[in-house]
Design brief:
Elements: E1 3-7, H1 19-26, E2 30-33, H2 36-46, E3 52-55, H3 65-73, E4 77-80, H4 94-102, E5 106-110, H5 115-123, E6 130-135, H6 140-152, E7 156-161, H7 166-177, E8 182-187, E9 195-200, H8 201-209, E10 217-221, H9 232-244, H10 249-260, H11 264-272
Parallel strand pairs: 1-4, 1-5, 2-3, 2-4, 6-7
Antiparallel strand pairs: 7-10, 8-9, 8-10
Length: 284
């Protein structure tokens, strides 16, 4: 039986390519990649020639499965890489892994660079327990729900964000959990102009407003603290914040009960006395 091997590639600094990763790419029958030009440039830099490449990006990964399985059935090794980082982490690779497992092939990986882990360990925030959220949905109710879950999470939360959406995401985080929570913004990791900014959410909003964000960002958000004992006014204010951000009353009740660690029935009784929010205030 063949082996499908996921190979981590540098997220910026080509010196991070490990010897075992180079060996894996030299000795495989096929390299599935997001962009043959980008991967071809990496292979050229590493002195690797003669290995066939095939595009397996978010649009073509599923269509590539049969070809990969044919090679694995013949006992070959197929490598999977992405443009940068670890395949399968907010990048293609998951569907190929699932197909290989379902057909009883060996799946392995060469670990290496990963932006989320690097940002976490240099953030200064607790890393013994954390949640990786990746990219948030761009709009709609699903985005609002994910933001509610992220800001209510007691573990450290790691998110990815595009530069043109960074200011909006920080503003929404401020709306959901206030401005005091600590956050770290990391960009250009491992590169010449690596930048790590640390401060509160309120300070982050002001920081980004003063400059044009460039490059993809990793956001590391401090986990929510367990409230010492929420008052009725605390619950009412939290409900108003949630509903002003577009949450329906039922969703807001569940979120506030989790956020403030209080009984849902208590939150529901307080919510009954709050007038319904106008439809025009729903989240976009």
């Amino acid at each position: 039986m063949g082996t499908l091997i996921l190979v981590a590639t540098p997220i910026g600094n080509l010196g991070d390519m490990s010897p075992r990763a180079i060996e894996a790419l030299q000795n495989c029958a096929l390299i599935c990649c997001e962009d043959t030009r980008r991967t071809g440039g990496l292979l050229s830099h590493l002195g690797i020639r003669g290995v066939r490449m095939a595009i397996a990006n978010e649009h073509t990964e599923a269509a590539r499965i049969d070809e990969v399985l044919d090679l694995l059935d013949s006992g070959h090794t197929v490598a999977v890489v992405t443009d940068a980082g670890m395949p399968g982490i907010s990048d293609p690779g998951e569907r190929l892994v699932r197909a290989a497992i379902e057909h009883h092939h060996t799946v392995s990986a060469v670990p290496g660079p990963s932006a989320d882990v690097m940002a976490l360990v240099i953030s200064g925030l607790p890393g013994h327990r954390y949640v990786f959220e990746g990219f948030l949905p761009r709009s709609g109710a699903e985005r609002a729900q994910r933001l509610r879950e992220a800001t209510a999470e007691r573990r450290t939360v790691v998110l990815y964000e595009a530069p043109h959406r960074l200011a909006r995401t920080l503003t929404e985080l401020h709306s959901f959990c206030g401005g005091e929570r600590r956050i770290v913004l990391a960009r250009e990791l491992t590169k010449l102009h690596e930048e790590v900014w640390r401060g509160s959410i309120a300070e982050a909003v002001a920081h980004v407003a003063e400059r044009e964000p460039l490059g993809e960002y990793v956001l590391v958000l401090e986990g929510a603290e367990l409230p010492p004992g929420a008052t009725d006014d605390d619950i009412r204010a939290a409900l108003n914040d949630q509903m002003a951000a577009g949450a329906r009353k039922k969703t807001a009740v569940a979120s506030v009960a989790q956020l403030l660690n209080v009984q849902k029935n208590r939150v529901y009784d307080i919510a009954l006395a709050i007038p319904a929010q106008p439809r025009g205030n729903s989240a976009s």
